[in-house]
Structures are given as C-alpha cells and as structure tokens.
Write a structure and sequence with these properties.
Oligomer: single chain
Protein name: Type IV pilin
InterPro entries: Flagellin/pilin_N_arc, Pilin_N_archaeal
Low-confidence stretches: none
Keywords: Membrane, Transmembrane, Transmembrane helix
CATH class of the largest domain: Mainly Beta
Number of domains: 2
Order of helices and strands: HEEEEHEEE
Organism: Haloglomus irregulare
CATH architecture of the largest domain: Sandwich
Number of helices: 2
Shape: rod-shaped
Mean pLDDT: 80
Length: 160
C-alpha cells in the first residue's frame, strides 16, 4: 500500500513550483502596465471675475484670475492663452516672486506685462487657463469667455 501515495517531498516541490510560476505571471502582468502610468494632472482651482469699467486699472477693462485652492503652484507652469494662440505665464504677469498660493490673483487686460494677449475688448473673447505638469503635459483648467462687451467710456484711447 505504501507504493500508491505520492511522497510529501514531491507534493511540496510541486506546490512551490506552482506558486513561483503564478508569482512570475502576476509580476509580469503588473510590470506590463508601468508604461501606461502617467503623472497626475495638476490640481488647483481658479475663479474669474470681469471688471468692465477698468476701476483700478487706468480705465482698461480686465478680468481677475484668482488661484482659489490647491497646493502651491509654480507660476511658470500656469499659462494664460487667448483664442488667437498668444500666451503668457502667471510669472510674466505676477508682481510677486515665489510660488502661487491660494487666494492670490492677477489682472488680465492685454496691456503691459500681459501685452502678448489680445486686449479684453469684446463679448465672446475666450481665454484659456492652462496648467502644465513637470513632464510638460498640459490640461485646460478654465475656458473663460468675456460675458459682455466692456464699457469703453472710461477706457484710454486705443484700448481695442
């Protein structure tokens, strides 16, 4: 009767072999997805508010872009782009140095430090707030459209 059973040594060896093969298959499947992993998209929330009469901005209409929430951000990685494809970074417009923190803001009017952008002149003009991660990948955080044509009565000549 002793000749009919499988020895415990052979059973343990087969069990170890099965576990090793199974672990290798799982590891290869898991490592196969590594090239599909991406850096997380930048996080942060922005708000916009248009100022049509240009109060506090030499009469030029502008919109205020506020970094409302999120971790501190590199100002050179926050891009403001107009519908013509012109762009500036937060760093170009911002008068403070260092990272951008919650509740900090800039004015966008298309003059001065953000003069590369179209002037804030007409209803329907579109501006894009783009966040760029360290790998250079971008995500449009806000697509902001000027809601109404600003009042030109206070604006300096040549504002549009």
């Amino acid at each position: 009767m002793a000749d009919r059973g499988v020895s415990p040594t052979v059973g343990v060896t087969l069990m170890v072999a099965i576990v090793v093969v199974l672990a290798a298959v799982i590891a290869m499947m898991a490592l196969g997805f590594q090239d599909r992993l991406q850096d997380p998209s930048p996080q942060g929330g922005f708000t916009t508010e248009v100022n049509h009469d240009g109060d506090g901005n030499a009469g030029k209409p502008y919109f205020e872009l506020t970094y409302e929430a999120g971790p501190t951000a590199d100002p050179s990685r926050i891009i403001i782009k107009d519908s013509s494809g012109n762009s500036v970074t937060w760093k170009d417009v911002w008068t403070t140095s260092g990272d951008v923190r919650a509740s900090e803001y800039i004015h966008i009017d298309g003059f001065g430090s953000d003069g590369a952008l179209n002037h804030v002149c007409n209803e329907g003009q579109t501006f894009y707030i783009i966040h760029q991660n360290e790998a250079g990948e971008t995500i449009v955080t806000i697509e902001y459209e000027i809601p109404v044509t600003p009042d030109p009565s206070n604006a300096p000549s040549g504002w549009c």
